[in-house]
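Reopening this ticket.

The earlier resolution said the output was attached, but the attachment link was broken on my side. Pasting everything inline this time so it's all in one place.
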Amino acid sequence: MATTYLVLLRGINVGGKALIKMSDLKVALETNEFLQVRTYIQSGNVLVRSNLSEGKVTDKIERVIGQTFNMDVRVAVFTYDEWQNIIANAPKWWGQNPEWKHNLLVLLKPYDMKTAVSAVGELKPDIEAMVVGEGVLYQSMSRELFGRTTTGKLASSPIYKQMTVRNFNTATKLLKLLEETEA
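Inline output:
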């Protein structure tokens, strides 16, 4: 029986680099035996159904992207239950303060959570917060004081290449899309 997977592509369609049209990606995945392929916005969010295991889905999608688009793109893959747990286990404050940015930092496998947390550095609790989840970091930070935050500087850190980021709205919308697919 086919399983529904959420696939998050890292580093595509950002700043005019690593451009992949989601319509082209959809066709490439359908051509390679993925079922019910659905994309959401241009930042590399894909829902697929497959009889393959999670690890094989990861490998195959990375290979399809490499062969079709001549790009080395890493992906993070989750089942509906895994993504549902990630959203359900978010700290209560995540996504709540409209004056703060709220992100989900998704670590690419294999990862070492201690290394990731250590790379972030010491937080400034009055302007940012971060909590460890299952393969993710829940991050919130002041919009106004973004430039002063420790987590705001994460993009210049080598660990940043080991993660893909989705904002609160996208992360929660992806759960709704998974729920629709599972219904």
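Reporter confirms the inline version is readable. The chain has a mean pLDDT of 92. The longest helix spans residues 54-69.
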